[in-house]
Design goal:
2 copies of one chain form a homodimer.
Chain A (H helix, E strand, L loop, with lengths): L12 H15 L11 H8 L3 H13 L3 E4 L3 E4 L6 E4 L5 H5 L6 H8 L4 E12 L2 H7 L6 E11 L2 E11 H4 L13 H8 L6 E9 L3 H6 L8 E9 L5 E10 L3 E8 L3
Parallel strand pairs in A: 3-10
Antiparallel strand pairs in A: 1-2, 4-5, 5-6, 6-9, 7-8, 8-9
Helix pairs in contact in A: 1-3, 2-3
Chain A binds a DNA duplex through α3.
Chain lengths: 260, 260
Amino acid sequence: MSTGQDYTDARPLQVRMADDLRRKIETGELGQGAQLPTYDDLAREYLCSLAVARKAVDLLRQQGLVITKQGLGSFVRERSAMVRHGVERYARHHWKGIEPATILGAEATNQGRKATRIIRGLGVTPAPALVAERLGIAEGTDVWARKRTTFLDGRPNQLADSYYPLAIAQGTPLMEEETGPGGDFARLDEAGHSPTRIREEWHARMPSGPERAALRLPDGTPVIDFIRTIIDQSGEPVEVMLSVIAGDTTSFIYEFPVPD
Amino acid sequence: MSTGQDYTDARPLQVRMADDLRRKIETGELGQGAQLPTYDDLAREYLCSLAVARKAVDLLRQQGLVITKQGLGSFVRERSAMVRHGVERYARHHWKGIEPATILGAEATNQGRKATRIIRGLGVTPAPALVAERLGIAEGTDVWARKRTTFLDGRPNQLADSYYPLAIAQGTPLMEEETGPGGDFARLDEAGHSPTRIREEWHARMPSGPERAALRLPDGTPVIDFIRTIIDQSGEPVEVMLSVIAGDTTSFIYEFPVPD
DNA sequence: TAGTGGTCTAGACCACTAG
DNA sequence: TAGTGGTCTAGACCACTAT
């Protein structure tokens, strides 16, 4: 066969084609950004129908290796620059220092990126179950919600919804669009609830259709379901953030002592 | 139209069908494990070809919402039980206590799961770049590698490759198949390199074909690329573990104080 | 306009499962 | 055996991009 395939290989043709292409990508024969053969070329080369050639490329798209552009072609996906989220991003001096900034803003700047954000919603809402559990209140209790989308260098990378007990947010800039220098951490601190401990819980999953659209995710890109709880000096949970984070532009680093 | 679709909806039919099905899953009309309509049913209902019905279900598979079983049907995917990895799993008393166990073993037992593992490889190997950087040695320097696959309740959930500087592993049970009670943490401790700090770095991505096969991952399941560095009492890195973790059975929890 | 990927049809035949 | 999903063919036509 012209492809050099072992004819005893019983795998479906579309899988063999995908593996051949994947090998070329991994060896660098097809470098980042390089154009793949067109569907027509693949169909000719492998003596198959267009549908099969398409399916082969689809398999690679689902692995996040390839992107397709209508009218242009299929291309080896380029690795996105990642923001690294470290424990250090929460350090007091970032939000309580000489020139206090938001957590994300300071971190992005440190890594040469630009963070922006829009407010998607602001108001009283019944606490979702995940929030209620962590705030120690009944599901459906009214809480203050602050929903926003954050962007890195113009690309959306996070759908972040923060929830505060009403008694804590009441009368503070947490209820405003702009929370001011130091962001929510500084405002909680001023309100007598100094952020003292952080709990982060997460797992990875594939995005739903609407999430893919909202985060403008390429094919084959997972998201992180992320829950952050801020705990104050008396051990009280004062904010729960539910966040969906674009998986291709985000990495995390934790460093901590071995517990006893 | 029989489906109640707005005829001005310009989205492709396959997408509308997928969204209809997704809505039924999210509202619970199609509960976990419930069978979806067959491709034939869908094609009849939406007056489309089988290929389009198939594509609609494919979209949901890629989101991890649906699994298909040849000869049986398509089903709403059931949420897998997750192991929660917390900072506490590294606690000294787990590997240095009365009845020392492996980190993973102790954690699984606590959560009512059963952890097993096989050794995939054991021997001297040139250090990969990711390892060399973190051990502070030149890429390609010989190190001791210990590659294993871990299982939870019989399902593979992690491809974990640990690398040790030769001088540290030499003459210790780290070179054996069985590292004994307390695992590698206890052996490092005995060798004068007490695990003192942990650094964990990770991001999410889609698995390659071989990884999907090795971890027996359903469609639409991401993996976590996970790098763990163990640092001893003098600040020296003594082990780097490169791991690929099944995303659908793993969640993480970190809790830590806000740094100054 | 030519060339690319995207959607869709109308089939054929194979592989697997349950009864 | 009947019914399901999986692979594949051989087209048609649309949407988008570059020139």
